[in-house]
């Protein structure tokens, strides 16, 4: 299941937090950076979808 | 008895009446029917009447009866009115005597009673003051329940997936919201259509809120600008209560910015227009992209910083591993070692000194407690004391002895003076009979032998006569 935009942003914030920790090793750092870039790309793609769907509820439901 | 409900007057009958001379005599039902048809004039059907309520009565059946009255130049006009139960249910206020109202309905004739009345289907307080008073009453009740308190206000989610909109499906509101949302962010809008004005609007709006509230992350309740009366439904307790009980945050966008309804007060956020509500609902795509760009830069910078610090670490290690540095390090350690040895030796010596002095101190304290020394020190004094005691004792004994001696002397002198010797000297003698001292003549009888004791000897004697006469 695709993640919500909010969840993607949440994951990104976690990654940045870890990257800002002084104890993070270089290898880990590179890993985090790669993951972060994938997430940023996903978020940008999500924003590019300009579609707005409108559903109208029936009155009797 | 058959009741004639309707009399159909055909052209022939009318012609017949017209041909007659003089006043025409009609039947009650005929005139009643004519009156009914007169009231069916369109000018009296589906009209608004404004006036003051008098003689208001609520029947137990739920029907309402009252009159609408008006005074013009001292002349009073009055129309009987009634509201049937079904219509009365939808009144959004409680009518009472003296209230200025606008009533909608038709005049109708009640033939069996011979009365006409105005059948009201909708009614509203007409004066702006009346409405304002009613709204103020509601506002106070709601405020007392805490519906407007700031602590109740919730923050809408930053990135809603589904946005509920309660508004008219045909108005500009939904169009504006869709336009603003699509320009900013991708989200699904779920429209829950409602009549936003009219006599039953408040019920319809409340139902529309309940219908959509569990399907969405945030809810916009909106209506375009309109008159004070048009927005009236958004003050109704039913609508406000639905907003208060809504499980997701509610953004209100009702009327123009100057219009503040009770729904606006109860909503989590009150937006000035539907477009503004939509802006409050979703983040702007452009600012999100900027934020992502910032994140990208930040992550890159963090990585670069980390790599630089790793390089610095390596350089520092390399430098620390160089031969001169190692030698210097060894030297420093050696010096340290020597210093430590010195300190240890010094420390040991000082410890030894301390132990010595402590030992001699203890020795001195033990010596101080030695009993021999005490005895040696105290003995001469004690001896002298003993000698003195002894002298005093023998002196006292001598005195006492001398006293006792003189006492004895005195006593023996007394004794001598009073003793048997003196008596013997005076001529008394002691008589013994069978070795016992004879103190009375009672036991003596003639012929008895007794011994007479004198100071210088004894003589046996025989009793020749006993004289018991005391007077010798």
Entry summary:
The complex is a heterodimer of chains A (61) and B (472). Chain A is mainly alpha-helical. Helices cover 64% and strands 7% of the residues of chain A.
Task: Name the descriptors.
heterodimer; A: mainly alpha; B: 472 residues; alpha/beta; OB fold (Dihydrolipoamide Acetyltransferase, E2P); Rossmann fold; five-stranded mixed β-barrel; five-stranded parallel sheet; 13 helices; 14 strands; elongated
The appropriate CATH architecture of the domain at 147-283 in chain B is 3-Layer(aba) Sandwich
Q: Tell me the name of the CATH class of the domain at 147-283 in chain B.
A: Alpha Beta
The CATH homologous superfamily of the domain at 147-283 in chain B is termed Response regulator
CA-to-CA gap between the ends of chain A? 28 Å
What is the beta-strand fraction of chain B? 15-25%
Helix fraction of chain A, binned, reads: 55-70%
Give a topology summary:
The complex is a heterodimer of chains A (61) and B (472).
Chain A: H1 5-20, H2 26-48, E1 53-56
Chain B: H1 11-19, H2 28-39, E1 47-58, E2 64-72, E3 75-83, H3 85-88, E4 100-110, E5 115-125, H4 128-144, E6 162-167, H5 172-184, E7 188-193, H6 201-212, E8 218-223, H7 237-245, E9 250-254, H8 262-266, E10 269-270, H9 274-281, H10 285-320, H11 323-368, H12 371-418, H13 420-426, E11 430-433, E12 436-437, E13 449-453, E14 458-462
Parallel strand pairs in B: 3-5, 6-7, 6-8, 8-9, 9-10
Antiparallel strand pairs in B: 1-2, 1-4, 2-3, 4-5, 11-12, 11-13, 13-14
């Amino acid at each position: 299941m695709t993640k919500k935009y909010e969840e993607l942003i949440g994951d990104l914030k976690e990654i940045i937090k870890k990257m800002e920790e002084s104890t993070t090793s270089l290898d880990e750092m590179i890993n985090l950076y790669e993951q972060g870039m994938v997430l940023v790309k996903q978020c940008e793609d999500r924003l590019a979808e300009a579609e707005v769907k409108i559903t109208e509820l029936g009155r009797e439901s | 008895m058959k009741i004639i409900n309707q009399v159909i007057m055909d052209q022939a009958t009318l012609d017949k009446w017209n041909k007659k001379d003089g006043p025409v005599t009609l039947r009650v039902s005929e005139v009643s029917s004519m009156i009914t048809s007169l009231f069916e004039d369109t000018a009296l059907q589906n009209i608004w009447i404004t006036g003051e309520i008098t003689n208001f009565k609520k029947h137990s059946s739920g029907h309402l009866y009252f009159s609408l009255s008006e005074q013009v130049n001292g002349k009073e006009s009055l129309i009987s009115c009634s509201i049937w139960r079904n219509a009365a249910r939808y009144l959004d206020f409680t009518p009472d005597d003296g209230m200025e109202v606008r009533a909608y309905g038709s005049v109708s004739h009640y033939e069996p009673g011979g009365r006409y009345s105005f059948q009201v289907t909708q009614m509203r307080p007409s004066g702006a003051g009346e409405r304002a008073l009613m709204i103020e009453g509601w506002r106070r009740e709601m405020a007392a329940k805490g519906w407007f308190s700031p602590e109740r206000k919730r923050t809408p989610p930053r990135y809603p997936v589904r946005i509920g909109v309660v508004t008219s499906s045909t108005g500009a509101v939904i169009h504006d919201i869709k336009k603003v949302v699509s320009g900013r962010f991708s989200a699904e809008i779920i429209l829950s259509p409602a009549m936003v004005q009219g006599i039953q609007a408040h019920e319809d709006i409340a139902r529309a809120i309940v219908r959509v509230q569990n399907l969405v992350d945030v809810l916009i309740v909106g209506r375009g600008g309109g008159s004070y009366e048009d927005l009236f439904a958004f003050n109704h307790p039913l609508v406000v209560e639905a907003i208060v009980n809504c499980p997701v945050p509610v953004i209100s966008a009702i009327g123009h910015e100057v219009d503040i309804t009770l729904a606006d007060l109860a909503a989590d956020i009150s937006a000035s227009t539907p477009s503004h509500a939509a802006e409050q609902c979703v983040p702007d795509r452009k600012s999100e992209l900027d934020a992502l760009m910032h994140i990208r830069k930040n992550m890159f910078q963090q990585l670069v910083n980390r790599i630089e610090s790793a390089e610095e670490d390596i350089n520092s290690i390399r430098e620390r591993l160089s031969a001169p540095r190692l030698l210097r390090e060894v030297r420093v350690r050696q010096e340290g070692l020597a210093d430590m040895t010195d300190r240890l030796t010094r420390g040991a010596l000082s410890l030894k000194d301390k132990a010595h002095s402590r030992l001699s101190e203890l020795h001195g304290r033990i010596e101080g407690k030695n009993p021999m020394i005490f005895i040696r020190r105290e003995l001469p004094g004690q001896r002298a004391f003993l000698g003195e005691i002894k002298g005093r004792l023998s002196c006292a004994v001598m005195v006492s002895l001398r006293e006792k001696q003189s006492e004895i002397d005195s006593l023996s002198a007394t004794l001598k003076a009073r003793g048997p010797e003196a008596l013997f000297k005076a001529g008394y003698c002691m008589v013994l009979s069978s070795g016992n001292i004879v103190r009375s003549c009672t036991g003596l009888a003639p012929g008895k032998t007794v011994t007479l004791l004198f100071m210088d000897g004894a003589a046996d004697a025989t009793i020749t006569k006993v004289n018991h006469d005391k007077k010798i």
